[in-house]
Design a protein that fits this description.
Largest sheet of chain B: 6 strands, mixed
Structural class of chain A: mainly beta
Strand content of chain B: over 45%
Oligomer: heterodimer
Number of helices of chain B: 0
Order of helices and strands of chain B: EEEEEEEEEEEE
Helix content of chain B: under 10%
Distance between the termini of chain B: 41 Å
Radius of gyration of chain B: 13 Å
Number of strands of chain B: 12
Radius of gyration of chain A: 13 Å
Structural class of chain B: mainly beta
Number of strands of chain A: 11
Largest interface: A-B, 30 and 26 residues
Largest sheet of chain A: 7 strands, mixed
Strand content of chain A: over 45%
């Protein structure tokens, strides 16, 4: 069964460093998403991406964040200068469509620890 | 804005016990409602969904009914197994791109 994959599973970085989190969505999906979950808090939407453009973004997704689909398979989230409060589990998801009826398929997550 | 509230965990049960995990929502429109499950080391998987009032979603013995009058979507299972141990997330979609999640409820089932 096709699945969303994410690498690395755990990333440790120093405050102020840049990190890139990688995701491979399901191959025939057209919509891509990033969510994050700070420990003990809700899973929060960050951004959605369609047709090589950001479709929607949350208030969390400020200028420090960017997303890219550099080739036909990868979808990346870059944090330019990490802060302590960026420590969280980051989930990538993809879907065929972007309607409220449509299932989003999630990856296993990348745990980011900022020291 | 729209939001989802779930009961806090962990919920600890013996095998074959009855499970209820409460979920209530706040939404201005007519959202779709979802339960996702996350097993250890894996991603969130869709467990069941309901797209309109009074719909019942069901899968793997789990059920949840979309109750508009009480704005609830409680997850139930009549007889849990050890293999059901996981984190359960209630979520809604209001028709925009994003899912809005609750905090998740950890279920631990002991033999």
């Amino acid at each position: 069964e096709p699945e969303v994959t994410q690498t690395p599973s755990h990333q440790v970085t120093q405050m102020g460093q840049e990190v890139i989190l990688r995701c491979v969505p399901i191959s025939n999906h057209l919509y891509f998403y990033w969510y994050r979950q700070i420990l003990g808090q809700k899973v929060e939407f960050l951004v959605s991406f369609y047709n090589n453009e950001i479709s929607e973004k949350s208030e969390i997704f400020d200028d420090q964040f960017s997303v890219e689909r550099p080739d036909g398979s990868n979808f990346t989230l870059k944090i330019r200068s990490t802060k302590l409060e960026d420590s969280a589990m980051y989930f990538c998801a993809s879907s065929v469509l972007a309607t409220k009826l449509n299932e989003q398929f999630f990856g296993p997550g990348t745990r980011l620890t900022v020291l | 804005g729209d939001s989802v509230t779930q009961m806090e965990g962990p919920v600890t049960l013996s095998e074959e016990a009855f499970l209820t995990i409460n979920c209530t929502y706040t939404a201005t429109g007519y959202p779709s409602l979802f339960w996702y499950v996350q097993y250890p080391g894996e991603g969130l998987q869709l467990l069941l969904k309901a797209t309109k009032a009074d719909d019942k979603g069901s899968n793997k013995g789990f059920e949840a009914t979309y109750r508009k009058e009480t704005t609830s979507f409680h997850l139930e299972k009549g007889s849990v197994q050890v293999s059901d141990s996981a984190v359960y997330f209630c979520a809604l979609s209001d028709g925009t791109d994003k899912l809005i999640f609750g905090t998740g409820t950890r279920l631990q089932v002991f033999p």
